[in-house]
Write a structure and sequence with these properties.
It is built from five helices and 39 strands. The chain is mainly beta. Helix 2 packs antiparallel against helix 3. Strands 27, 29, 30, 32, 35, 36, 37 and 39 form an eight-stranded antiparallel sheet that branches.
């Protein structure tokens, strides 16, 4: 993935001391997807250099991408600074990016926007600059964890976590020293696993240079009783609202617990849907519709590891509908994303189904044309009142939805036409499209279209009636490949496919002179997974939020001033800037790179890759911005 540029002040850059602002705030990340490794909590108002580093130097050994994103949608927080930086050790800056922004007094919320990393979040409190020089050092606390015996000694090992706060200029660093050694920067809980009495001395420094007094925590570690050769026992509990079939409605929460009667539990790990194991720190929440598995294991302080266990379960749409079924015919819109989205605002409210079988998103009708924002707000107030009365949402959910509607641009000048449905499930709608190259699409009884398993070759269904500049394109796709996964994609921004002066093959005009937004949940094969801008901007499988075959996915592609944003099931999975000078990778001799893709407007198309890549599309609609 490319780094996500901030929209304020300047482009992200590697550390340039000459460009530093009066105040520098630094966030760091490592392999953990549940927290930032370090993060400031306070700052003073004014020009600030914001640094985000997620690199080998900060402990990232897996190339896991993270973002530092400031929340600009919640009115309870300051929303005047647009910071959205993505970093990983293999990017162009080695995982270190920075921007300059002007902070104002109040509280900012920040978080990681990578799907599944939602617990990486915090608040930054900004005070007026002018309250006098900061002369107060930070406050530091130590927390010791581990299994203890009756005497209070720690059996096998103990870990010491340090935390510092500073209400003035903010915490700059925490240091510690073990057993009289030299001070070192604190980055993660300190593990003490040798028998004996240990001392941990710690202190913190704030941005103004004030250093706290040294404090000491003493920890005694004793041998486990006997030779421990027995691994821990681990149990998994799956919680959530279930239907009569035992499937979980909207989401499921997996809680893991481990016990070890001898040396004690050292740690628990988990993996979702066959992914890599990660440290377990809190219950795992699974939102996406489909079949899921959570594997788990634990290790004790003697080094014994349990065999991996697995909890398997199915998440369905609220009401227990089969996720393959289309929305009810009488619903105003088709929108079964897991969370309620009003306009462009994600509310975090579950997108449940009302007694008539329509989702909250479908009842809000934010995709249709509205004559004014006021009429839309009145409609939302009435609909949410009914949803509360039906028990679909609570009053807090209603408040969040109405606030999101108030912040949206639905019905505002420039957004009164709504979305145009250019593939609505009718034969007349499909006749508006043209097919070039190999393959074919066939219309199904439910109004969707599926790529042919009989007509060989790679080709594209394209919409020749209009070219689009800035737009939002939304559609649904489903991987219907038997015994495997499909390779497909959505083409955008390409010129007219017939009569191109440099490419005689119409389908290749889209490939070479437009961008393919990839669809592929394959575990192996092509490195570009769903959400990738093919050839230019890579999304790995974990970040693409894969779903099982046979499950409908909502796909949204937003293009504004050559900046591409890709959403899957309502969550942002990639951003890309179509700047000149980028080369196609892996190299292709006749590919013009992004220099050949600087089109102000272009057409859209749906790819059929071959008879073994079976993909189904439905409900294609677009709104010009």
């Amino acid at each position: 993935m490319a780094a996500i540029p901030a929209a304020q002040a300047q482009e992200p850059r590697g550390g340039d001391p000459s460009a530093a602002a009066a105040q520098t705030l630094t966030w760091t990340a490592d392999n953990d997807i549940t927290r930032y490794k370090t993060q400031p909590t306070t700052a003073v108002a004014g020009e600030t250099t914001i640094v985000f580093e997620n690199s080998a130097a900060t402990g990232n050994t897996t190339s896991m991408p993270h973002t530092l994103t400031f929340d600009t949608s919640d009115p309870d927080y300051n929303n005047d600074v647009n910071v959205n930086l993505m970093a990983n050790p293999n990017d162009a800056n080695g995982g270190r990016w920075e921007v300059t922004a002007t902070l104002t007094p109040g509280t900012y919320r920040f978080f990681c926007a990578i799907p599944g990393h939602g617990s990486m979040q915090g608040e930054l409190v900004v005070t007026e600059d002018g309250g006098g020089e900061d002369t107060t050092p930070p406050e530091v606390t130590a927390t010791v964890d581990g299994e203890q015996n009756e005497a209070g000694d720690y059996v096998g090992s103990a870990s010491v976590a340090l935390e510092a706060t500073d209400e003035g200029s903010g915490v700059e660093a925490i240091e510690y020293a073990v057993d009289g050694g030299e001070f070192a920067p604190y980055e993660a809980p300190i593990v003490l696993n040798t028998v004996g009495e240990h001392s941990v001395v710690y202190r913190a420094t704030d941005v103004a240079g004030n250093v706290s007094e040294d404090q000491t925590t003493t920890v005694a570690v004793v041998e486990p009783s006997g030779d421990d050769t027995t691994p821990p026992e681990v149990t998994a509990t799956v919680d959530g609202e279930q239907n009569e079939a035992g499937d979980y409605l909207t989401m499921a929460t997996v809680t893991l617990e481990a016990t070890d009667a001898d040396s004690g539990v050292a740690g628990i790990e988990y993996a979702v849907n066959g992914g890599e194991f990660a440290p377990y720190t809190e219950p795992v929440m699974v939102h996406s519709v489909g079949d899921h598995s959570v594997s788990y294991r634990a290790t004790d302080n003697a080094g014994n590891s349990s065999e991996a266990g697995t909890a398997s379960f199915t998440v369905v749409q609220d009401g227990g509908e089969d996720p393959d079924d289309p929305p009810p015919a009488d619903c105003p819109e088709a929108d079964d994303r897991p969370l309620v989205v009003v306009g462009d605002v994600l509310t975090q409210v579950p997108n449940r189904t009302n007694p008539e079988g329509c989702t909250v998103n479908e009842m809000i009708e934010d995709e249709r044309g509205w004559s004014s924002n006021g009429s839309f707000l009145t409609h939302v107030a009435e609909v949410t009142a009914d949803l509360v009365a039906d028990g679909v949402i609570d009053q807090e959910g209603r408040r969040k939805i109405r606030r999101a509607a108030d912040r949206s641009d639905v019905g505002e000048p420039g957004n009164q036409a709504g979305y145009e449905r250019i593939l609505d499930g009718t034969a007349q709608s499909l006749d508006r499209w043209g097919h070039v190259g190999g393959g074919a699409f066939e219309l199904n009884e439910d109004g969707s279209i599926t790529s042919s398993t009989e007509v060989e070759g790679m080709g594209m269904l394209w919409f020749p009636e209009a070219q689009y500049g800035d737009f939002v394109l939304r559609l649904k796709f489903r991987d219907d490949t038997a015994g495997g996964t499909a390779n497909s994609g959505v083409f955008v921004g390409f010129p007219r496919v017939h009569g191109h002066p440099e490419e005689s093959r119409p389908e290749w005009v889209a490939i070479k002179y437009g961008h393919e937004i990839q669809i592929s949940d394959n575990r192996g094969g092509d490195q570009y997974k769903t959400g990738s801008v093919y050839g230019f901007d890579l999304v790995n499988r974990g970040a693409s939020m894969p779903t099982p075959t046979g499950v409908w996915n909502d796909y949204e592609i937003r293009v504004v001033d050559q900046h591409y944003s890709v959403y899957r099931n309502g969550l942002l999975i990639n951003e890309f800037d179509n700047a000149p000078g980028q080369l196609f990778s892996p190299p292709r001799a006749d590919d013009p790179g992004t220099d050949g893709r600087q089109n102000e407007t272009g057409y859209i198309g749906l790819q059929t890759h071959g008879t073994s890549d079976v993909i189904t599309f439905s409900d294609v609609r677009i709104r010009e911005l």
